Amino acid sequence: MSEEIVSRVSNYLTPQVPFKAIAQGAEAVVFTTNVHPYLPAKDSNNKTYVIKYRPPKRYRHPSIDRSLTKHRTLSESRLLAKLFLIPGLKVPQLIACDAYNGYIWIEFLGEDLPNDAGFSNLKNFLWMFAPSDPYDPIVKETLIKVGEQIGLLHWNDYCHGDLTSSNIVLVREGPESWQPYLIDFGLGSTSNMVEDKGVDLYVLERAIVSTHSLFADTYKEWLMHGFCQVYKNNGAEGEKKLKEVLNRFQEVRMRGRKRSMIG
Amino acid sequence: MPAKTEKQLTRKKNPKFSSMALISSLPQFPDTRISLRLFHNVSNASEIRSKVAQLPYAIIDARSICSLEQVYSAIYRALVESKYGKLKTKSLHSECLYSLSATSNIGEAYKNFGIKDDSQMLLVIQIVDKDQQDLQLQGDEVPLNDENLSQNCDMTFIRKIYKLNEFHSTSTIEISRAVVNCIQLRGL
Ligand SMILES: Nc1ncnc2c1ncn2[C@@H]1O[C@H](COP(=O)(O)OP(=O)(O)OP(=O)(O)O)[C@@H](O)[C@H]1O
């Protein structure tokens, strides 16, 4: 990570907020800290918070850069705020948003998986079960719940925009039970377009096929079971919309195949 | 740990600091002291109200406050806006009140969060680096904590002003979190 970004962030956060970098994407840098931006320490002890920072891009004109940063920071925060209101949908809580400077504070979710299997996102979770028990009932239950989360998102006319298996974080709810949360809404949007939904599903399918190809058919089936259930719970209207999404998903898939055959 | 001792000392030195007040500073603003006090059974709200513009406080009708998280989240936003030259009102205190609001209409913010002639519960916010002045507020100061806020606030009113009438949850924690979202995003 560039020295310049680290010093910028540490100036902004002050020495009172120690931080650690955990990820650097094309657009944002993600840090964790144990300091809550405004709640008294006794209420927030030992918790971790995520700080997502969009640094200025030198190749952009400064005023365009400022307005883009503000726009993207806000759009992600707004989405988190709206999604929080949807019953059953699980997204991290927004803690603070400083759109002018490009900072978002969100609640940290997930944990380290046992036996050094890495952070509890869906990708690592599936890796963990792959060698011993790829069809473990916990895997099934979890994938159905993942499908439900995506179903809830789409049914309410939101799209994720980057639905990879690392952007699905599993939060432990019991010794044998995990609740999937969707994270990283940097490319998310409100959308009632079946195209965007079809693409979300396709992106996730590709992510699973590419990392867990042997079990992908069963995994997809479980995911889609959860997904469809949400739509089917919404009567005739749900069935109708489900058909539209599934048809478009199939179309997106065909397009993807053609592209990979040519390219 | 040293920070705590210092706070306790300040409290002892200054008799006007009530022990029920919450005095703290936010990590990114270590030089700014925030004092919060909660009063019930206030009997002279109209008197306070008539001079509220001159008082170095933000005086909030606690009916609209359900949690400390709500209050601190608004103060945090006001401090950030102040630091980066984005204040929308004339002082840090009025900005704290304004920051509680879900809408960008300042008049509405005062209507929903400001002191009224018949206010009975008041939350007094003071952001300073000097000592607290005498408030001359007649009422019972009670410990400021989540219980004292949530048990006495007007949830129906809070849902209304933050446009959360449709929100499915009745848990204070969840409502408080939805409120924080509104506070962080108001007017942006
Ligand atoms: N709320 C959170 N709880 C736990 N970990 C998180 C959280 N948010 C982000 N992370 C971690 O940080 C990584 C990057 O975050 P995020 O995807 O939001 O940033 P990004 O820059 O958009 O990344 P990318 O471009 O790689 O998708 C995530 O993959 C995850 O491991």
From TrEMBL, chain A:
It holds the Pfam family Kdo. Keywords: Activator, ATP-binding, Chromosome, Cytoplasm, Hydrolase, Kinase, Nucleotide-binding, Nucleus, Phosphoprotein, Serine/threonine-protein kinase, Telomere, Transcription, Transcription regulation, Transferase, tRNA processing. GO terms for biological process: tRNA processing; tRNA threonylcarbamoyladenosine metabolic process. Its main location: nucleus. It catalyses: L-threonyl-[protein] + ATP = O-phospho-L-threonyl-[protein] + ADP + H(+); L-seryl-[protein] + ATP = O-phospho-L-seryl-[protein] + ADP + H(+). Coiled coil: none annotated. The keyword rRNA-binding does not apply. One of its GO terms (cellular component) is chromosome, telomeric region. Its EC number is 2.7.11.1. Residues 16-263 form the Protein kinase domain. It is found in: Chromosome, Telomere; Cytoplasm; Nucleus. One of its GO terms (molecular function) is protein serine/threonine kinase activity. The keyword Repressor does not apply. Component of the EKC/KEOPS complex composed of at least BUD32, CGI121, GON7, KAE1 and PCC1; the whole complex dimerizes. Belongs to the protein kinase superfamily. BUD32 family. This is EKC/KEOPS complex subunit BUD32. It comes from Zygosaccharomyces rouxii (strain ATCC 2623 / CBS 732 / NBRC 1130 / NCYC 568 / NRRL Y-229).
UniProtKB/TrEMBL annotation, chain B:
Keywords: Nucleus, tRNA processing. Pfam families: CGI-121 (PF08617). It comes from the Eukaryota. Gene3D superfamilies: CGI121/TPRKB. It is found in: Nucleus. Component of the EKC/KEOPS complex that is required for the formation of a threonylcarbamoyl group on adenosine at position 37 (t(6)A37) in tRNAs that read codons beginning with adenine. The complex is probably involved in the transfer of the threonylcarbamoyl moiety of threonylcarbamoyl-AMP (TC-AMP) to the N6 group of A37. CGI121 acts as an allosteric effector that regulates the t(6)A activity of the complex. The EKC/KEOPS complex also promotes both telomere uncapping and telomere elongation. The complex is required for efficient recruitment of transcriptional coactivators. InterPro entries: CGI121/TPRKB, CGI121/TPRKB_sf. Belongs to the CGI121/TPRKB family. It comes from Zygosaccharomyces rouxii (strain ATCC 2623 / CBS 732 / NBRC 1130 / NCYC 568 / NRRL Y-229). GO terms for biological process: tRNA threonylcarbamoyladenosine modification. This is EKC/KEOPS complex subunit CGI121. GO terms for cellular component: cytosol; EKC/KEOPS complex; nucleus.
